């Protein structure tokens, strides 16, 4: 990943706001757990090349999924944050089975690294 000088923005929000963003930008109805908006793509990608982009996480969905999966809020949040950041680096689980496997493996690998270093 090697991006020591890069920046990213993290927005923690609720289900209604992430549902609005999901509808506006992905044309999908309802809340989701995490959305990513890479800054290295599009018309203005050269404006701030050190900016990776934005990761938006719904606290409500994070808490609900964590409970359903048997994880703490922090564990689920960290997993979603890693997942969102990987999207900023171009990983995309929606383009096919191989891409899904690759992204899942990378998410697990990075999550294990931060889980060993963090109080969860």
Explain what the structure shows.
By secondary structure, the protein is of the alpha+beta class. It has one domain (7-117): 3-Layer(aba) Sandwich (Collagenase (Catalytic Domain)), CATH 3.40.390.30. It contains four helices and three strands. The protein has helices spanning 15-26, 59-69, 73-88, 97-117; strands at 7-13, 34-38, 51-58. Strands 1-3-2 form a three-stranded mixed β-sheet, sandwiched between helices. Helix 2 crosses helix 3 (73-88) and helix 3 (73-88) packs across helix 4. The protein starts with 6 loop residues before the first strand and ends with a helix.
Instruction: Name the average pLDDT.
Output: 85
User: Based on the structure, what is the oligomeric state of the protein chains?
Assistant: single chain
Number of strands: 3
Number of helices: 4
First CA to last CA: what distance? 24 Å
Query: Which spans have pLDDT < 50 for at least 5 consecutive residues?
Result: none
Structural class: alpha+beta
General shape? globular
Number of domains: 1
CATH topology: Collagenase (Catalytic Domain)
Helix and strand element order? EHEEHHH
CATH class: Alpha Beta
| Residue share in helix | 40-55%
CATH architecture: 3-Layer(aba) Sandwich
Instruction: Please tell me how large the radius of gyration is.
Output: 14 Å
- CATH H level: which superfamily? Metalloproteases ("zincins"), catalytic domain
In terms of DSSP E residues, the strand content is: 15-25%
Strand adjacency order, main sheet: 1-3-2
Give the biggest sheet. 3 strands, mixed
